[in-house]
């Protein structure tokens, strides 16, 4: 061992004896302190880490005290950035440097985070950043717990972050778990999310779809194609992930969405929530396998009269039953756990129908944990979802609450019963009106006129039921979230018509 190495090893031993918490800046590290990092860079790195939701891994690797971890969690639940709070504590109280942070990112294989701060560490450390951006093909490698990761040359011990993973002869107890990357979302995280899900062999899915025969292609979404297939005597829909977006930030968002789908869709079982059967990651592309919804999406059914050959329009009865089932699914999401889950992208394209036209909510890519209680509001950094279905307080001020789903649901109800799309061009004399203004104006006087003309005008109790649906749609889409119904209120309002569902 050279003299310099001995000094480094001694520094490391001393650091370990002191523990990460008391570690201060080493003489070998002359980079700036974390708290002096330029604000735009700090914001960028925090946004990136928050999107990956890795604050717990950071806190553990940095050996924070439980009360500090709780402090970060509290800020997170208030809608603040968990990563920023982590930096406040670790970078502020212990005066760590950007180089130390770089070492921490390296330890956790947060390569994009390393890229963001690389200009603030010495150039010879840039060799620790993998040259190529991790690709989805990383997923193909089966996780072998016994495999060691070759992280290249050891990171200087002055980093203040223990680096046992670099020591290929280190004992198992010291090892950092072997992690393959899905972008920056570790495969171990993905696997944990998918623990109770079936892991399906890719070759079985090839067989199920006749080798991805074009005739079995159901459609295309933001992530790639969806195929119909028969797998183990089950009718399934297989979403083939094709992370084609060349933009790295966008790609990261896509990866995060697939992870959300696994994490949340897998943890929720309800008659009106799409069943996720399993996933496959040992083939050409990662796949998610769902229950096949033979009735297609509500969106396509609402336009059925335009399809070739045209399908009969949905009856009022069917429309009502679909609306009730969808409301039940959203109500479950909002109330099943201590913290409400907010779907964030309720729209007809994400409501799928089975052969009996029972609805199931799909596309959990944007699901978020909301504020602690069903009536509370939290400020979030980023907007997400489909603009025309989002309420003004979320679109304009990033205020997230269960009211976001209620509003989107209200728009869906109005679309279902008027037969108009929220994006439809309105007749000439209504040019300045969007669907909501149009419905709100007409609902005062000529309410029956609002109903979809593709179906015979309802009479008697059926008419009352349709008017109730329009009223509920109007109440769900109030501009002020305080004036909106809750999903429980919606179901109460529908109860007098239970003969129809
Ligand atoms: N489980 C399923 N059963 C039957 N059809 C499905 C199923 N899942 C998706 N589809 C169909 O496959 C197509 C693509 O679906 P996907 O969820 O990927 O995209 P999307 O929701 O339309 O778009 P995005 O993902 O960008 O929001 C849609 O036409 C949808 O109706």
Automatic annotation (TrEMBL):
Death domain boundaries: 55-121
Residues involved in ATP binding: 239
Enzyme class: transferase
One Gene Ontology term from the biological process aspect of the record: innate immune response
PROSITE patterns linked: DEATH_DOMAIN, PROTEIN_KINASE_ATP, PROTEIN_KINASE_DOM, PROTEIN_KINASE_ST
Pfam families: Death, PK_Tyr_Ser-Thr
Enzyme Commission identifier(s): 2.7.11.1
SUPFAM superfamilies: DEATH domain (SSF47986), Protein kinase-like (PK-like) (SSF56112)
InterPro entries the UniProt entry points to: CR_Ser/Thr_kinase, DEATH-like_dom_sf, Death_dom, Kinase-like_dom_sf, Pelle_death, Prot_kinase_dom, Protein_kinase_ATP_BS, Ser-Thr/Tyr_kinase_cat_dom
Superkingdom, taxonomy of origin: Eukaryota
Reaction equation(s) it catalyzes: L-threonyl-[protein] + ATP = O-phospho-L-threonyl-[protein] + ADP + H(+); L-seryl-[protein] + ATP = O-phospho-L-seryl-[protein] + ADP + H(+)
GO molecular function: ATP binding; protein serine/threonine kinase activity
Region Disordered: start-end pairs: 1-25, 140-175
Gene3D superfamilies with a match to the protein in the record: Phosphorylase Kinase, domain 1, Single helix bin, Transferase(Phosphotransferase) domain 1
Record keywords: ATP-binding, Kinase, Nucleotide-binding, Serine/threonine-protein kinase, Transferase
Keyword Nucleotide-binding found: yes
Family affiliation: Belongs to the protein kinase superfamily. TKL Ser/Thr protein kinase family. Pelle subfamily.
Protein name in the entry: non-specific serine/threonine protein kinase
Organism for this UniProt entry: Drosophila rhopaloa (Fruit fly)
């Amino acid at each position: 061992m050279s003299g310099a190495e001995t000094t480094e090893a001694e520094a490391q031993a001393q650091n370990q004896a002191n523990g990460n918490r008391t570690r201060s800046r080493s003489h070998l590290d002359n980079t700036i302190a974390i708290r002096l990092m330029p604000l735009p860079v700090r914001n960028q790195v925090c946004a990136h880490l928050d999107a990956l939701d890795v604050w717990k891994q950071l806190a553990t690797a940095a050996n924070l005290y439980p009360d500090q971890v709780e402090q970060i969690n509290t800020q997170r639940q208030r809608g603040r950035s968990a990563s920023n709070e982590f930096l406040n504590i670790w970078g502020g109280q212990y005066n760590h440097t950007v180089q130390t942070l770089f070492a921490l990112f390296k330890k956790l294989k947060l390569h994009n985070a390393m890229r963001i701060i690389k200009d603030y560490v010495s150039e010879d450390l840039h060799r620790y950043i993998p040259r190529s951006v991790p690709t989805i093909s990383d997923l193909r490698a089966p996780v072998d717990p016994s495999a060691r990761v070759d992280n290249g040359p050891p990171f200087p011990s002055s980093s203040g972050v223990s680096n046992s993973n670099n020591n290929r002869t280190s004992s198992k107890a010291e090892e950092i778990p072997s992690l393959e990357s899905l972008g920056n979302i570790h495969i171990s995280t993905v696997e944990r999310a998918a623990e109770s899900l079936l892991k399906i062999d890719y070759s079985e899915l090839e067989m199920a779809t006749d080798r991805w025969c074009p005739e079995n292609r159901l459609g295309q979404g933001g992530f790639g194609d969806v195929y119909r297939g028969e797998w183990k005597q089950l009718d399934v829909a297989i979403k083939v992930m094709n992370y084609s977006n060349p933009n790295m930030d966008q790609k990261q968002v896509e990866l995060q969405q697939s992870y959300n789908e696994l994490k949340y869709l897998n943890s929720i079982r309800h008659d009106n929530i799409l069943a996720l059967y399993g996933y496959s990651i040992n083939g050409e592309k990662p796949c998610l396998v769902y229950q096949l919804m033979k009735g297609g999406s509500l969106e396509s059914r609402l336009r059925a009269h335009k399809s070739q050959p045209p399908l009969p329009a949905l009856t009022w009865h069917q429309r009502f039953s679909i609306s009730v089932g969808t409301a039940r699914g959203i109500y479950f999401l909002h109330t099943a756990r201590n913290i409400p889950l907010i779907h964030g992208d309720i729209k007809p394209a994400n409501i799928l129908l089975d052969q009996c036209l029972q609805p199931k909510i799909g596309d959990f890519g944007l699901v978020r944990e909301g504020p602690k209680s069903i009536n509370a509001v939290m400020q979030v950094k980023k907007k997400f979802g489909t603009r025309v279905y989002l309420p003004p307080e979320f679109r304009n001020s990033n205020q997230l609450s269960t009211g976001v789903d209620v509003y989107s649901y209200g728009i869906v109800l109005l679309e279902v019963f008027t037969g108009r799309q929220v994006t439809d061009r309105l007749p000439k004399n209504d040019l300045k009106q969007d669907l909501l203004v149009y419905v709100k104006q007409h609902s005062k006087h000529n309410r029956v006129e609002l109903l979809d003309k593709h179906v015979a005008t309802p009479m008697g109790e059926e008419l009352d039921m349709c008017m109730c649906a329009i009223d509920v749609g109007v109440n769900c889409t109030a501009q002020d979230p305080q004036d909106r119904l809750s999903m429980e209120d919606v179901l109460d309002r529908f109860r007098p018509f239970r003969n129809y569902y």
